[in-house]
């Protein structure tokens, strides 16, 4: 009797390894085809840098995989559920009705992994403005760029604001006022140096 339970458990572990492998391969392929991997890569350019070491990341990933495999048949059910949830989320995002203007702005984020931080920020701000979060105050724009400058001192706020202005989504007066403030701050820093 004990051998049959052990066989059921080990079979579940083997099936879970197969499910994890197939899930990873299929979801990676779908994310690549839909541009989700490129979007993720672009969004990471604005996130705070990951300070964990490579070995720590590998250790956490391996620990999670080993834990999921050890769950055996529960892991199989969870793996299939995660796969279906992720697949449905990707399909919903791809097939959701989105205004043409927003699709036009999302296109570079989905298809160009070489965008600069400034360009990614400009496109994301423009998409947010069209999506119902209009920018009406230059200090909002400045605060948004300052958050990125804290993590990436080489981020050029002036360039990002000019790129946002060129997209023609945010009120040109608001963008121009924010750009004037950035220019004044840069000029005052140059004078002090």
Describe the structure.
This protein has 193 residues and is an all-alpha fold. It has two domains: 94 residues, no CATH class; 93 residues, no CATH class. The protein contains nine helices and no strands.
Give the total of beta strands.
Answer: 0
Low-confidence stretches: none
Largest sheet: none
Strand content: under 5%
Total helix count? 9
Secondary structure class reads mainly alpha
- Give the helix level as a range of percent: over 70%
Cα gyration radius (Å): 23 Å
Secondary-structure element series? HHHHHHHHH
Total individual domains: 2
Oligomeric description of these chains: single chain
Principal-axes shape call: elongated
Distance between the termini: 81 Å
Average the pLDDT over all residues and give the rounded result: 87
Secondary-structure blueprint of this entry?
Layout: H1 2-34, H2 36-44, H3 54-70, H4 73-95, H5 100-111, H6 117-130, H7 138-151, H8 157-167, H9 172-192
What's the short version?
The chain has 193 residues and is mainly alpha-helical. The protein has helices spanning 2-34, 36-44, 54-70, 73-95, 100-111, 117-130, 138-151, 157-167, 172-192.
């Amino acid at each position: 009797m004990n051998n049959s339970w052990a066989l059921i458990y080990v079979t579940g572990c083997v099936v879970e390894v197969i499910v994890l492998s197939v899930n990873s391969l299929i979801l990676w392929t779908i994310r690549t085809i839909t541009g989700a991997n490129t979007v993720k890569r672009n969004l990471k350019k604005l996130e705070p840098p990951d300070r964990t070491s490579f070995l720590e990341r590998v250790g956490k990933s391996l620990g999670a995989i080993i834990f999921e495999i050890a769950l055996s048949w529960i892991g199989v059910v969870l793996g299939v559920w995660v796969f279906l949830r992720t697949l449905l989320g990707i399909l919903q995002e791809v097939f959701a009705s989105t205004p043409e203007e927003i699709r036009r702005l999302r296109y570079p984020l989905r298809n160009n992994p070489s965008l600069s931080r400034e360009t990614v920020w400009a496109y994301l701000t423009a998409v947010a403005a069209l999506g119902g979060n209009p920018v009406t105050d230059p200090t909002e724009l400045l605060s948004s760029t300052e958050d990125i400058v804290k993590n990436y001192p080489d981020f050029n706020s002036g360039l990002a604001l000019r790129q946002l202005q060129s997209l023609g989504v945010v009120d040109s007066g608001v963008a121009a006022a924010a750009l004037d403030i950035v220019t004044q701050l840069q000029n005052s820093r140059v004078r002090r140096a």
